[in-house]
């Protein structure tokens, strides 16, 4: 099956989207790329997302470094938003999030103040959200990386690899 054969939208709400709704969340429209890339691509039976920022209605709810301008707890909630945005990117290429069989890998980037060392706790926001909405299929390998700066001065960025059927 080629990428062109996969529907990009569906009127049916998936079980994953129902769980998101129960958490008070909804899939947003996929954010327009801010540079020369696409939000997600399929290779075989995997979807690779581009890094997702914590956009809400097209805007960053916070900017700056975690451990300075942004608290670790707030950054953790922003990482969860990044994960929701990543799921939206996955849906844009596979059509139905119930097709996800496993989140294989999550990579989280945290724009960190020089002395901040709590990157894993921040990226737990994304990991915990994926576990809540996908159950066992949301358990994944992960990297949590501290960086000097992220695009648009975002505090966090998350990308993922999802396996689907």
Description:
With 165 residues, this protein is α+β, with helices and mostly antiparallel strands. The chain has one domain (3-164): RutC-like (60s Ribosomal Protein L30, Chain: A, 2-Layer Sandwich), CATH 3.30.1330.40. Helix content is 28%, strand content 22%. It has helices at 15-22, 72-94, 119-134, and strands at 40-43, 46-49, 100-111, 141-147, 156-164. Strand 3 (100-111), helix 3 (119-134) and strand 4 (141-147) form a beta-alpha-beta unit. Mean pLDDT is 92; it is low at 1-12.
Strand order of the largest sheet: 1-2-5-3-4
How far apart the termini lie comes to 11 Å
Query: Could you give the count of β-strands?
Result: 5
Global structural class: alpha+beta
Percentage beta strand: 15-25%
Count of helical regions: 3
Return the CATH class.
Alpha Beta
Gyration radius (Cα, Å) is: 15 Å
Helix-strand pattern, N to C?
HEEHEHEE
Estimated helix fraction: 25-40%
In total, the number of domains comes to 1
As for the CATH topology, it is: 60s Ribosomal Protein L30, Chain: A
The averaged pLDDT comes out at: 92
- Sequence stretches where pLDDT stays below 50 over 5 or more residues: 1-12
CATH architectural category: 2-Layer Sandwich
Looking at this structure, what is the CATH superfamily?
RutC-like
